[in-house]
């Protein structure tokens, strides 16, 4: 926007929808991949890579990858956070804090990529 609310060089609505669709697709795959990386690591990382490679070539690249990384980070924080909160005396989850920090870092990276993707389309 410039001046008194006039739009200049605005993205067509279809381009904005495409960005959100890419981000949402990445988020859904990221949630599934995040869960699988904790339960079946090889399968989870394979799913994440299988999505990220084509997403890097076709469509809204940064938004899709941002959604993917955000989804993985959210699942890691939720699941590992739940374990950390319920783990009491006699618990078999020592040293989970570093994985929570890693999950938070992954979430922060995903949100940063998402904001950059949205910001770059507004320019």
Describe the overall structure.
- By secondary structure, the chain is mainly alpha-helical.
- 76% of the residues lie in helices and 0% in strands.
- The protein has one domain.
- The chain is elongated, with a radius of gyration of 18 Å.
Radius of gyration: 18 Å
Structural class: mainly alpha
Mean pLDDT: 84
Percent range of helical residues: over 70%
- Beta content comes to under 5%
Query: What is the oligomeric state here?
Result: single chain
Descriptors:
123 residues, mainly alpha, 4 helices
Concise account of the structure shown:
With 123 residues, the protein is mainly alpha-helical.
Helix and strand arrangement:
Layout (H helix, E strand, L loop, with lengths): L12 H27 L1 H15 L5 H26 L10 H26 L1
Helix pairs in contact: 1-2, 1-3, 2-3, 3-4
């Amino acid at each position: 926007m410039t001046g008194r609310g006039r739009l200049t060089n605005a993205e067509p609505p279809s381009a904005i929808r495409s960005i959100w669709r890419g981000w949402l697709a990445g988020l859904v795959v990221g949630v599934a991949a995040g869960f699988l990386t904790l339960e079946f690591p090889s399968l989870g990382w394979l799913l994440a890579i299988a999505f990220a490679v084509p997403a890097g070539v076709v469509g809204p690249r940064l938004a899709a990858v941002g959604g993917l990384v955000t989804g993985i980070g959210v699942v890691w924080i939720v699941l590992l956070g739940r374990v950390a909160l319920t783990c009491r005396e006699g618990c078999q989850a020592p040293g989970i804090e570093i994985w929570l920090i890693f999950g938070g870092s992954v979430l922060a990276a995903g949100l940063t990529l998402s904001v950059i993707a949205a910001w770059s389309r507004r320019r």
